[in-house]
Amino acid sequence: MRPRKKKGSSTGWTLVEIIVASAVFAILLVGFAKAYHHLRQVMALGDAVEQMKLRSDGIDEVFQAVAPSSIRLFSQDPGSFPFFSRLSAPPPLTGWQAPNVDGSSSGNVFLVLARWKALDVVVGTETVRIDLVRFHYIFPSYGEGIMLGTNTFRELHYWESKPYANLNNINVILSPALKSSVVSYLYSTRGIFYAMDIGAINPNEAFFSLSAGGAVASDPAHTIPQDRLVNLTRGGGVERGSYRIGLAPNILFSAGLLHTVPRYNAASGDFPSGFEVVFRRTNTQRRDVVVRCVLLAKGAFPKPRTYELASQFAVRDVW
Known about the structure:
22% helix; alpha+beta; 3 helices; elongated; 4-stranded antiparallel beta sheet
């Protein structure tokens, strides 16, 4: 005879127990989801701040590398502003301005001519030293997507030109045969295709073409060629999927962010956005350059976060 089951001895779950357990599990799951979401926000924000610092350090390093070898600054003033139109770089932000040479107004682009290196050209028993120079240009431009409010994403770029021979070094060579040999060497062996009168005020009179045959010809319609272009705000690794970093637009206190833009000039349209440059003269051949750069990160955290680079360095402005 099989024993009879006692009433209430079943090991299964009742409907009420299942409902209660499901409710508790759902509550725990929601709590875990909120905690995980908050953890992701904290991690993304921490990573974004670190990446903005790395990018700011990279921007500062570019200025510190160019400054010691600078020989000529270009400003909003009539004596140098026309050179901006000769650059083959991508267009900057709408309404861009260069700084005034006397420091009376800031700008949001930076253009400088700097020494690159010197070449000792040996022809027979003669040795001729030729200085090579490059243009260095830092400017803001538009990216893709919306950054803050209705503002299009902004990026900061570093542009570098092809090298130029200093025309003064070529013109002091008295022997036509020696001059022709030096120019031919620069063109054919060193890949230097252009020369520049580095003190010229009018760009129509500043640039010259070299040839393999040793000739030097005026190039009044010359366009300054690009050697490289670097995105300074995107650099330093793969862009994170949970946030993006760019140059900040003009920001008021009402935006609730840590930094405001601009500091040195009045905002006008997209000018200056988060890149400001001011010149300050220290003596007849040197200037202090003040740079302020505000980056903005937007992504998987409650509100955008900003990071400020403020730097000052001395440059030579001989011309």
